[in-house]
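Justification of computing resources. Each target in the renewal requires a structure prediction run like the one illustrated here; the chain below, 340 residues long, is used simply to show the kind of job we budget for.
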Amino acid sequence: MKKTLIGISAVAAFTMAGGAAMAQSAGDFYKEKKLTIYIGVSPGGIYGTFAHMLSKHISKHIPNNPSAVITVLRGAGGTKALNYVYNVAAQDGSVAITPNAGVTKRVLLKIGKPKYDPAKWQWLGGWGEATNTVTIRKDAGVSSLKEAMQKEVVLGAIGRSSNTYMIPALMNNTIDTKFKIITGYRGGSPIRKAIETGELHGWSGQWLGWKLRKADWVRDGKIVNLVQMASKKDPDLPNVPLLSEFATNEEQRWMFEFVQTGIGDKAFIAAPGVPKERAALLSKAYMATLADKTFLAEMTKRSYTIDPIEGSVITAWVKKLMTTPKDRVDNLRRAMGLIK
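Resulting structure tokens:
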């Protein structure tokens, strides 16, 4: 019996040593390497600002404290950067990306030309869920989504393949809202400017954008949120209904939950080829950064809410989403105005 116990102890010791060596090896990699964090949108926007703050703090949570730098690669609504990191950039642990929303849904909905498999990305974690709202001027004469089913509301949109168009189009085609959607605006800032001048009543965009760009409008009650899209209500919007609350049948409920659930929309990801131990190290450093008191204080000053999501949770959600039957996706694409 003693011999057997010694054998088991030896195996355990060997396993622990091996694990320590692997962790040490992953940490040694960053002695002479920097971490490049890609973003695919404006450096001054929601995602660009977050990536910049992340780069300031994540280094102290990585062994050997490598410098972290931001590289902007704009194009195709963020898809250009995703394609580059997945197919071209080094896959050794020196590169990661903080993509904007829709990494997985774009592939399912056949939007743009994504050249990646969402289920193969290494999801390192997320800093929260994106909450989208349909927000309009308070003086537009409509104060609820039900009233928007009776009276026309003019919304601005970037393009027909943008959530700014697809989400209100979905509502028009399912629950008979009367949104008049005007496309062609070159981003959220021009749309908010058009809302300010009275050219538009509102738009479908991220709630965080209002907090960051029009905090005075939020404070002074100049806007009304008709509906919100998220898997759970945003703490800021306890009395604003979720889109899924308006579903009248099971198919509508599935469609609404598909568009409103965005637990992977504020993620940190690495390409499939990055060694697992280095990806795990980056994940650990990322989650530690999200809990870092100095980082949190700086993000709070910028009106960001950090609500960490483990990479494993996002991974499971992505894999489930990618198994959605084609006929269901086609019905949704049709309702969102992507196909006839």
